[in-house]
Amino acid sequence: MWFNIYSMRVFYFLSSCDTCKRIMKTLPLDSSIERVDIKKNPLRISQIEHLYTLTQSYEVLLNKRAQLYKQKGLKDQSLGEEAYKALLLEHYTFLKRPVLVFDQNIFVGNSLKVIEAAKAFLNEQ
Q1: 125, 103 in Cβ contact below 8 A?
Q2: pLDDT in tens, the chain (125 residues)
Q3: How far from 25 is each of 8, 21, 90, 109, CA to CA, in Å?
Q4: Domain edges within the chain
Q5: What is the DSSP secondary-structure string of 13-82?
Q6: CA 19 remoteness from chain centre
Q7: CB 20 within 8 A of CB 97
Q8: What pLDDT is attached to residue 4?
């Protein structure tokens, strides 16, 4: 299926995450933004690569606070971009969430600064 990456509008979240649910309620996500629960629809390689084109870093997309990250003992290891990409493909919990993609703009994570920036951006659209 062909799609224009410049007009992609997606909100990636985890439905079992209370923080994601709270953020979804505060952001003005209109019907043009597809909502994707990453537990029910794990990210495909093409989606991860698209996120990379917007961030230029797989590490930025990685949730280093994930339990699985700690269980694997990755905290003290020096990993490269390919290792981060492999982790993102391995399990949905490795994606820092939520992620909002709006055309060529991306907002990654749940920090107050990121959420406020996403909210301000969406309110301008």
Answers
A1: no
A2: 334 444 589 999 999 999 999 999 999 999 999 999 999 999 999 999 999 999 999 999 999 888 877 777 777 778 889 999 999 999 999 999 999 999 999 999 999 999 999 999 999 98
A3: 21, 6, 29, 15
A4: 5-124
A5: E-TT-HHHHHHHHHS---TTSEEEETTTSPPPHHHHHHHHHHHS-HHHHB-TT-HHHHHTT-TTS---HH
A6: 13
A7: yes
A8: 45
Element (H, E) at 5: none
- Return the structure tokens found at 28: 């003005």
Both tokens assigned to 36 = 């994707």
As assigned by CATH, the class of the 5-124 domain is alpha beta
Contact 71, 59 (CB under 8 A): no
